[in-house]
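Problem: given the chain below (316 residues), write out its structure.
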Amino acid sequence: MIGDAMAVRDKAATFRQLIEPLDMTAFVAGVWERRSMVFHGSPERFQGLDLDFAAFTRAIHHLPPNSIRANSVESDGTGRYPYIDAADCRHRFEQGQTICVTELQTCAPRLLDLARDTHQALGLAGTVCVNAYLSPAGRGFGLHFDTQSVFILQLEGEKHWRYGDGPAVAFPPEGMDACPDAGRQRFRERYPAIALAEPGASAWHQCLLRPGDVLYLPPGTWHQGTAGDYSLALTLTCCTHDFSALLTPLLRETLLRSEPWRRNLPCRAAAQDGRTREAFIADRIVELRQWAEDLSPPDLARLWEELAPAEARARP
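Solution.
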């Protein structure tokens, strides 16, 4: 029994296997968050994950509520993503909808191992979750981009992908569907300082993912997948933090010791001892500048380390 367990463990997929033939140094220096890349492999690459179609259909019955969605794309390109129960998956799949499962690693030990190994190998200040997508023939998601780096692992079937060479928008604050056009207009209105490249302006690639293949997509990269006869794939979703994640907790911890920072914004009717709202704001700005001047890079670096779980910080 011990020998069998060790043999299974030895076959477990690791992050470094996903990016072969690159090593970690080459991947991080030339690919990570910069450009898309396909890593071809054989079906045996994912044998240690212990997840095929049968195992997938069993696992989804052990997920918490609101873990499964059914995706369909309307004629205008708009995506629909209602929550469904595990018992409804077969019917939705037969209707031509893609079954989307979030955080499958919570009920699949080998996927949890892979998520932890990915987190540790990259040293991410954040989390890695494993999502699964089961698409019927000719179906998939509409053209869109995500806020985080994604590794797509093709387990069964095939999926045709077209994708941008790199980000259409650098580190987008939110993901977005390309259709309808109004969505892109809303993005520009909400974030006027962020440059968003139209899908037609991207340098496009196409590939066919077969079992054992991996596609890496940086944040903000347009992509769209369409299944062959059917497709079962996983995504390693790397949810990281921006710099504000270091500042916000520290800001609240230090400045909220002061009553003016804790209090509600004064109402207009309040005399505030004759002081205007502008004067109140000016005082807070002075305090904020002093707080920023007192920030210590080593202290922020320690907070950065604390964003990663202990097991991820213990590099092999």
